[in-house]
Amino acid sequence: MIIAVDGPAASGKGTLARALAEHFGLAYLDTGSLYRATAVRLLAVGNTDPTEDEATKAADTITAADRESPDLRSEATGQMASTVAAMAGVRASLLAFQRNFAANPPGGATGAVMDGRDIGTVVLPDADKKLFITASAKARAHRRFLELSASGDPTSEDQVLADLIDRDRRDAERAQSPMVQAPDAHLLDTTELDIDAAFLAAKAYISGPAR
Ligand code: C5P
Fold first, then answer.
1. Of all atoms in ligand 1, which is nearest to the CA of residue 78?
2. How far is the CA of 98 from the centre of ligand 1 (A)?
3. What would be the CATH architecture of the domain defined by 2-203?
4. Largest CB tally within 10 Å, which of 79, 130, 162, 173?
């Protein structure tokens, strides 16, 4: 069983994908962490304006430690991740890892849940189930603001909203694997749903008839 979960920043797709993986006994991969790890590597050496060649080399050499960096979730890392994610070389570099994860899920799991922007469209177009998770920009910015505040980041909610809209636009408008709902994906809008309600709706779709 392969489940693709795509959607914009702070839509709740990560929390949902993790919960689905646990419920169905599947391996979980947060594919955004690969792009973020690439950004962490570049920012660690002060490279804030990488060429495609430099960014691709960074993507080629990410390690598990990069994906566990304390800076992984910061706003600066997210913006840089979105910048390098528009580069064809970076996407090609990270594609094999993602497909290999789905083909050989770790821990003896019989399948995988992977979340990102292009899982159902490009990485795993034959996934058994595809979800596209969304929510209004305001609701997503509020959630992200609460997360950042809890981690001690002094940013304002208006700034979070502006950054989020900026990142969504870049992700949706890029030429390479833009963020878009796959025609055969199930749309789940979580604006008015808490995590329990979103989980129940996603579980009902996954347990329902084949795509
Ligand atoms: O999901 P997350 O917000 O952590 O992803 C960070 C960035 O990585 C996104 O804004 C997007 O540009 C990029 N990304 C992508 N394709 C994926 C996952 C993430 O382009 N499958």
1. 6
2. 13
3. 3-Layer(aba) Sandwich (3.40)
4. 130
